[in-house]
Amino acid sequence: MPKTGDAGAELYWERSGAGEPLLLIQGMSGTHLTWGEPFLARLRSDFDCVVFDNRGIGNSDEVEAPFTIADLAADAVAVMDAAGLETAHVLGISMGGMTAQELALAHPDRIRSLTLGCTYCGGLGSSLIAPEDAGPLLEAMGSGDLDRTLKAMYAVNLSPDFRAEESHFADFTAMAKALPARQQTVQLQIGAIGGHDTQARLAEIATPTLVVHGTEDKMIPVANGKLIASLIPGSRLEVLEGIGHMFWWEQPERSAELLRGHALAIR
Q1: Which CATH class is domain 3-129+184-263?
Q2: How far apart are CA 38 and CA 16, in angstroms?
Q3: Residues 6 or more apart whose Cβ sits within 8 Å of residue 52
Q4: How far apart (Å, rounded) are the C-alpha atoms in residues 14 and 32?
Q5: Does an H or E element contain 224, and which?
């Protein structure tokens, strides 16, 4: 586990698979378990996958001090260094996609390809979760009731069609309960997201970029993905019809194929 000076805490990371190096950066409250075995299993034959828990989350040490998305990008570099990755393909989703933007801007020489999923750049035309969806989620998170919080999270992160199959909720809750997010850290993450704005700098990204976004995303509406793709030169946009925020959870096979096709085309 690498020691990062900015975080003042150790970050937990794991690696599996073989092939091209791939760094996966999770979003708000997500842990390394949030990728899900169905998605990772479809990547391991082609990629040396490195997953980690963001500062203050999961198996990483607790933190109390506020941090920025740029700080999280520095953490991602620390994980790459600890894993011995001089360069890597990078997948960032949601808050992790914001981190990946900052990483691509600060360390373009470290990234082979960039995939940004269900994420946000800040600035004019960007938008996060609507108040009518945020209200119940924040109330549930503030209640201290884990079951209530997970139900609220499930409702805003997955599409109605996916949620129609009752067994899917059991899989989601098993993942979340296996390594619950620390709520004090989630509040710090919300603060970091609120200060994120890369919109004016996205034109500087020269790394081959794929943007993936579901049309049923309530956490970060699909218009954000379209905006990001329009601002990064040469990027490709993949819109997933009827899919929610956690697109890799709803469609692991398709998501892995999109990533594989993009990353392995880079030589």
Answers
A1: alpha beta
A2: 14
A3: 11, 12, 13, 14, 25, 26, 32, 60, 76, 79
A4: 8
A5: helix 222-231
Q: What are phi and psi of 154, to 5 degrees?
A: -60, -40
Looking only at the bridges linking them, the beta strands covering 88-93 and 111-117 are: parallel
Q: pLDDT tens for residues 190-202?
A: 999 999 999 999 9
**Residue ranges covered by each domain of the chain:** 3-129+184-263
> Which residue type, as a one-letter code, is found at position 106?
A
SS3 per-residue string spanning 157-196: HCCHHHHCCCHHHHHHHHHHHHCCCCHHHHHHHHHHHHCC
Residue type, 130: A
Region class of 212: left (phi > 0), else alpha (psi between -120 and 50), else beta? beta
User: Residue 68 pLDDT > 70, yes or no?
Assistant: yes
Q: Per-residue pLDDT tens for 141-169?
A: 888 888 899 999 999 999 999 999 999 99
